[in-house]
Amino acid sequence: MRDTDATGADGDAHSPVIVAPTPFGLSDYRTCLLDTNVVATHLATLGVQHIRLAGPDAVYWDAVDTDKDGVADAIGLARVDGAVRDTASHGKPITMIIALNALPGGLFPGEGTATRAAYVQFVQSMVERYDGDGTGDLAGSPKIAVWQIGNEPNAGGGPSVFLPTEFAKQVLVTADAVLAADPTAKLALGGTFGADQGTGQGGLTWQQYYTNALAALAASAPDRRFFDYVDVHVYGDASGDYELVEGGVSSFRSLLAPYPQYADVRVIFTEVGTSSGGGSGPTCPPYQSEVQEAADLVKRYTVAIASGAAELYWFRLCEHSGGFNPYFDLVGLIFDGTDVCGGEHDRGANARKLTYFSFASLSAMLAGASTARRVLPTTSALHLRAYRFTRAAAADVVIVWWDTFADGAAFTEQRSLALSDLGLIEAEVTSVTSLVTSTSGAPRTVTPSAGAIMMDGEPLAVILGG
User: Fold this and answer.
1) Domains in the chain, please, with CATH?
2) What pTM was estimated for this model as a whole?
3) Is the alpha carbon torsion for 354, 88, 118, 178 positive or negative?
């Protein structure tokens, strides 16, 4: 385990963190080939509170205005309109990427050029269309809650990758254009690439890249605030990469510390996930079971919430085959009926994965949470994590897990954990259930005995008497 003593929050391990009221989000949810009403039912069951539009649903200048004259093409505009209209029907706040391809060399269009002027015109027209003010709006006047400037601008390659100083120009120009059209809009920096892959563009870590970009922004306008959210993307595996969520929060807080105008900026995670299946073929990820994937989802959300993150978006409602990377084809909450890596991992189109039930269970359990604090177990025999949440209308809950991989144990191996190691006694425990369910969504109950509970790799929820 990378960081057994870190609190993942402000202050020491016993300092409570105020919990964001609605941290559960989804990104790229429209890969599901499902009726809108069916999607609405899934979103309600899962307790989704935020939706991010990305990929073909996003406002990419080069895809929506192909001749780049500042006016959206009919086809591109209809595509984005459809995405916004469908998403607005679900009644969730929408985060929307707005981006463009870089010029050769990772450059942003120069000041005074016709290209920059056309880009500004395009941004303003699109923001006006989705600002909900009743003037020049898409029918029904839906509003984009957050405009996200770029996406993974620090990636090692791709059309929307910019040098750090050029990304700063993209942020400055785009922020000006967005706020000119909608002064009430909220803005987010494009999410980071590389939290689980080391380095990106130019051999820089994401922290180095964003340090340079922030310095360039400050040099252009020292006291101005350009954004309200910063975003970290974390994928990787189920053998400890959840800790990168915790590291993302602390890293961005450190990067923003020299700039007082960003003191209340919130950290969000608009792309988070790990895969299940895999293991066959040179481009497939190493095999992970559904149970491991579901356990990792619980860990990522728990750590993010306890670290003070405002929102965390799981990547995809449904798996979606045929992409550029089989890893991403195996991330989601619902199967799509195909298995790109073989092994008969997929249980059939529209079958809900174990991640689906873990997401729903955790969002319901923490819906009324008000504070969270890390509990440091007194035993050093196991690599454990534990977090205690207070809830406004329910008894406290302690979420605890054993990182079996850190102790060289199999995921299914069981060990005994004394409740006293968590500062608890058996008399105050109302129930203990696993946050990884059966394939039907049925929870597994754990019965305390002689002041102890048996643990394997599945995270447990210990409900206390109220």
Assistant:
1) 21-365 (3.20.20.80), 369-464 (2.60.40)
2) 0.94
3) negative
